[in-house]
Amino acid sequence: MGDSMKKNSVDVLLLISVLAISIFGIIMIYSASYVWAEYKFNDPFKFVKNQGIFFVIGVIFMIIISKLNYHKYYDRANTLLIGCLVLLVLVLIPGIGTVRNGSRSWFGIGSFGIQPSEFTKLALIIFTSKYLVNNEKLVGNFKKGVLPILAILFLVFGLIMLQPDFGTGMIIIMSIMGLLFVGGVNFKFFLKLGIVGVLGIVGLIVVAPYRLKRILSFLNPWSDPLGSGFQIIQSLYAIGPGGLFGYGFLNSRQKHFYLPEPQTDFIFSIISEEFGVMGIFIVSLLFITIIYTGFKIAKRSNDLFGKYLAFGITFQIAFQAILNLMVVVGLIPVTGVTLPFLSYGGSSLLITLCSIGILLNISRYEK
Amino acid sequence: MLVIVFLFLLIIGKVFYIQVIQYKKLNNYATGLWSRNLPIEANRGIIYDINGTILADNITTTSLVLIPNQIKDKENTATLLAQILGVSKEDMMEHVTKIASIERVHPEGRRLSYDIADKINELKLPGVYLIKESKRYYPYDTFLSHTIGFVGIDNQGLAGLELIYDEYLTGSYGAIKYFSDAKGNRLELSEVYEQPQDGINMTLTINYDIQASVERELDNVMSKYSPEQAWGIAMDPNSGEILAIASRPAFSPSNYSDYTVEEINRNLPIWMTYEPGSTFKIVTLAASVNEKIVDLNNDYFYDGGAVTVEGATLHCWKHGGHGQQTYLQVVENSCNPGFVNLGLKLGKEKLFDYIRNFGFGSKTGIDLNGESSGIIFNLDKVGPVELATTAFGQGVSVTPIQQITAVSAAINGGILYKPYIVKSLNEPETNSVIKENKPTVVRQVITKEASDIVKYALESVVQNGTGRNAFIDGYRVGGKTGTAQKVQDGHYMVGNYITSFMGFLPADDPQIVVYIAVDNAKGVSQYGGTVAAPIVRNILVDAIEALDISKRDGAGEKNYNVGEKHYKVVSNVIGMSVNDAKKALGDFTLEFSGSGSIVSFQSPTANEKILEGDVVRLYLSE
């Protein structure tokens, strides 16, 4: 299939947006992290150097992948997923996987860390896209069409929750759900699933009522300023006092040990603190451009696998970005999700850039 | 896609909301989180006398404060500081490494001398600060101590005016505010200096010179007669302003913990209640004159030494009585049966009305803590005997401040003022008045005419009667003695009196009233005229200078008792030879200074009147 199709050049707008937001991310990681880096490693450039290396590798990968025909993944989908599942099991074994921030999610190589769950995100999207293409007729049938893919999804989710890494697990669930929805799975299914989900949450709250308090603490973080409200308060202290114009580049105050690890989940609050509402606008605009082009590529792709793949990749980035931003500004409870392109994290950036490489490749086969 | 754009708009909207609507709240909270304060102590308000003499001051010192988190090189810092302060390095190491946001080096680092502070300052060590500390200082120690009170270790008012006006006198802390990171390290952001706000200054109605005179005289009487207690007040009768107020035993406000609670809290002139004795006769006199039931010069009274009221015999203090007298002489002699007669003539309703109107039985409302109200008979329980004894000052219980306030009313034209001691509160920078006390008229008690007669009668007490020891030549002094037997467990104590004198000057236009009482003076006949009157005289002499009171015309001559020293005029001896001068000043004791044979200077100068035997100093030259 596909090899005979006409090749266009890659989508330039997507490429530029991705490069711009990644470079901005690296700059902001420097600004957000140098205080911590100096304190922990005696090297203010520690984090930015790591991220820079991954950025360079990521960009090279992105360029290579953008030249690789995406249909190859259709053929290798099973192998990729099985490889990721093996890694997910391996990472749980003490001595092979290392614990960081309470989760056994990493393969440590020196000071670098590789997170297999990041690779799994992409592998599962590829697999699901292939599955939807192969079972086009069966998706209306719950038992034969939906249940097998759900079983695989929950296997992956289960392995990730053993680390545990709730944020990544949730992103995987949601992006696959999105993909199934687009793939034509009956709407009633989502309704039922939603009801089960709500009942499950209610059940958890009935069993342990403190959970409700936890969940609702984002509404008034000051009810538990040193516990569940701590991160969001520190985030608000960055966003609020920075004001509409911000304190200016490098002038964040909250990064001085007030906001823990400001280069990771809460980098957006440092961006807001230093650049004010302008920084927020630019970041939002870049994300909207990336997401919009991603969807456009999905729409224009002339085969089903390309459509699903492009949609899955874009939807995952969109969902993760929005989830992170809503946490940072206090619209939803803290979930522990990083911001694509901007948060510090080598594997995350590498995989995101690889995904963009796939997107760029799909864009070459547009109608 | 629309949903996604909407969610981004929602996020931007929320950021906008946080940055605009919640900005103020978050900024306040966050500034509180980021900023650290180095407190700077404010000066307490200074307390002045009426002429600007400082009665309570502050000493400023410098103290060493460390912020251990900011000290990078702890070893070096500890070594250097230990060297300068002369303490062991181990001790200093403890301070330097202490887990505290701010560490005061106590006591080695407090109240540093200028040299040492300067040496520390020159090192410019990070995390090492010198801050200002202020400590209360009472330059005259025991002076006015009961009234001023004192402060505790944190400069907080604990007693007296220091306590009552604490919220004014206490300033507010200033601070050096700097921004720090969550670990307490100083950030290179701007530093804010908030100046401490010094406390409000306070000016009293007290006149330093008169107060000093009262303090000195009370000290003298304490060492001379060893009484249990002594106290005195001086008041401006035309306003109710307290010019001086003191108690013995006194205490040192800087060492207040060495004294008993009673010694500290009992401001005797307002706290003590006792039978006033004869000074109270001024009230009976004023009531009688105001009611016009007596003509002092033309009505007569025969004192046979005792008077019988309803079967009770009330004796005059003079054995055998004073015989036939005008009522003026009754006053001069302080004759008890004469006053009993005046009391009976007034009747209980009228006399007790006057007593209450003069302010007895209730607090005067002076702006000090610990005032008593005293006790006067309930009118229902007043029979003729009670009426009779009350008329000469027995069976009532009053405070010194009530007496001096009442007497001020009796001699100032009849107006009862509310006494006060705080003249004004002033803002320390601009000196603008924050609060000012003005004379408060309570009521008109007697007419001006009646008041004039009272003054006349009391002047004649000093000229001719029991108050002659208070006479000052050339100045018209009025006054009244008092000798009250103390009561213990419902019985009069034997040989134990509170002897007092109430004196004022000039008698025609009083500027100052002085009341002195001595509790159980020993080694002297316990009469107000003997013990208290000379003290009041000495204070009045000082007050003449302090208030710049001029000599009066129409000053009467003193009538002398047998053997009493007379006032004699000093003649002019300047230019005379030593021998001629000795002859001319034969009535006096002469002291010479200088060398030569001719008098070139004399003190007192010519035409002064002094007591015979007093010293005249002559300066001799060639």
Describe the structure.
- The complex is a heterodimer of chains A (367) and B (622).
- Chain A is built from 12 helices and 3 strands.
- Chain A is mainly alpha-helical and 367 residues long.
- The radius of gyration of chain A is 21 Å and the shape is globular.
- Chain A has a 3-stranded antiparallel sheet.
- In chain A, a hairpin with a 2-residue loop joins strand 1 and strand 2.
- Chain A has one domain.
- In chain B, helix 9 (208-225) packs antiparallel against helix 19, helix 12 (281-290) packs across helix 15 and helix 14 (336-346) packs across helix 16 (384-391).
- Chain B is 33% helix and 26% strand.
- By secondary structure, chain B is an alpha+beta fold.
- Chain B folds into 3 domains: 38-201, Penicillin-binding protein 2a (Domain 2) (Alpha-Beta Complex); 208-546, 3-Layer(aba) Sandwich (Beta-lactamase), CATH 3.40.710.10; 567-621, Trypsin Inhibitor V, Chain A (2-Layer Sandwich).
- In chain B, strand 11 (229-236) and strand 12 (241-248) form a beta hairpin.
- Chains A and B meet through helix 9, helix 10 and helix 11 of A and helix 1 and helix 2 of B.
Give a nutshell description of this structure.
Chain A is mainly alpha-helical. In chain A, 67% of the residues lie in helices and 4% in strands.
Chains forming the largest contact: A-B, 32 and 32 residues
Q: What is the CATH homology-level superfamily of the largest domain in chain B?
A: DD-peptidase/beta-lactamase superfamily
- Reported by name, the CATH topology of the largest domain in chain B is Beta-lactamase
The number of helices of chain B is: 20
Number of domains of chain A: 1
Please give the order of strands in the largest beta sheet of chain A.
1-2-3
Give the rounded overall mean pLDDT of chain B.
85
Which structural class is indicated by helix and strand composition of chain B? alpha+beta
Low-confidence stretches of chain A: none
| Count of helical stretches of chain A | 12
The CATH architecture of the largest domain in chain B can be given as 3-Layer(aba) Sandwich
The CATH class designation of the largest domain in chain B is Alpha Beta
Termini separation of chain B: 121 Å
What separation lies between the terminal Cα atoms of chain A? 15 Å
Q: How many strand units of chain B?
A: 28
- Total number of beta strands of chain A: 3
Overall, the morphology of chain B is elongated
Structural Rg of chain A: 21 Å
